[in-house]
Write a structure and sequence with these properties.
The protein has helices spanning about 1-30, 45-60, 75-80, 95-105, 110-115, 140-150, 165-175, 185-195, 205-215, 260-275, 280-285, 295-320, and strands at about 35-40, 65, 90-95, 115-130, 155, 180-185, 200-205, 220-225, 250-255, 290-295. It has about 325 residues and is of the alpha/beta class. Helix 4 crosses helix 12 and helix 7 packs across helix 12 (about 295-320).
């Protein structure tokens, strides 16, 4: 009798698995048939809008960009992690999400466990800038002054624990200098004080820094990527100035809730790869200050893990904590 009851349970479980797998297969075959949302956390939404335009054309459905900047991206990440696994809610992921996964003591979701990478879209360096009237003409000038005047150089950031803050802390560690960190609520607020002379220097995302550099109101000293930035070809990398291990870039990709059907995830990944190869996307992204950089789901996952290791080391060495 017990065997009979157990068998009925097993049959029920097997039939349930078949039933739900068939539903997933049907959903994947009819996907997409309604609007898709791209949720944006902290930072500008311009890249998301460029992607949304092209994705809407290729999938023949509306793709809507929705901003949820609160709590440094926690709200946006949580909304996508807990969304239905049907492929209609995507996250524009950035380096802020790996940082938050280290800094947040009790996050409402796990970035690595609850979200699945679909693909990387673009990278961008940070640019170390000073006011155009600043005496600092190079990174070497900053370091020499800071070494001779400990604690008298300050640097701004878009907030405690943000990627520009980590870039500043990384420079402090590698150059063995002391600088005072001044956090702001936004990058624009910090840049305003650099322009006004209240802040000595700041690492700014390239798209934000470019207009002020082009108008000669800010002077770029170095870029933080592995190679020179296409929009500022005359500005050296930090590595070229002697700090060969100094490399930190902003990045943008798309993530989706981890329970999404592999067929849907693969379809999205293939569509995005084709979009990134298109001349129109390339031109629009470059004009906006981004460097189109495609990585497949697996390669993007490896990149995120490496980024997580890097930011964890910087955070622990600098004892960075959220306010």
């Amino acid at each position: 009798m017990k065997f009979f009851k157990l068998s009925r349970v097993c049959v029920f479980l097997v039939l349930s698995m078949i039933f739900f797998s068939q539903i997933s297969l049907i959903e994947a075959q009819t996907y997409p048939n309604k609007p898709i949302r791209i949720i944006v956390g902290p930072g500008p939404d311009i890249l998301a809008r460029i992607v949304a335009e092209k994705l809407s054309e290729s999938l023949a459905v509306s793709v809507i960009v929705e901003q949820k900047p609160a709590a440094g991206g926690l709200v946006a990440g949580d909304a996508v992690a807990k969304s239905p696994p049907d492929g209609y809610t995507l996250l524009l992921s950035t380096g802020s999400f790996t940082i938050n996964s280290v800094l947040q003591p009790n996050p409402p979701y796990s970035f690595k466990r609850d979200l699945l990478p679909v693909g990387m879209l673009a990278t961008l360096p940070f640019v170390l800038v000073v006011n155009s009237t600043s005496p600092y003409q190079s990174l070497k000038d900053v370091i020499n002054y800071a070494k001779n005047n400990p604690g008298k150089v300050n640097f701004g950031s878009s907030g405690n624990g943000t990627p520009p803050h980590l870039a500043g802390e990384m420079l402090k560690q590698m150059a063995q200098i002391e600088m005072v960190h001044i956090p702001y609520k936004t990058a624009m607020a910090g840049m305003t004080d650099v322009l006004g002379g209240q802040v000595d220097l700041m690492f700014l995302p390239a798209p934000i820094a470019l207009p002020m550099i082009r108008s000669e109101k800010l002077r770029p000293l170095v870029v933080t990527g592995d190679k020179r930035y296409m929009n500022l070809p005359s500005v050296p990398t930090a590595a070229e100035t002697g700090f060969t291990q100094f490399s930190i870039v902003g990045w943008n990709g798309l993530h989706i809730t981890a329970k999404t059907s592999p067929k849907i995830t693969q379809l999205l990944s293939l569509q995005l790869e084709q979009i990134l190869k298109g001349a129109d996307f390339q031109n629009k992204a470059i004009v906006a200050g981004f460097e189109p950089t495609w990585l497949s789901s697996d390669d993007f996952a490896k990149f995120v893990n490496q980024d997580l290791e890097k930011v964890t080391q910087v955070i622990k060495a600098s004892n960075i904590q959220l306010d």
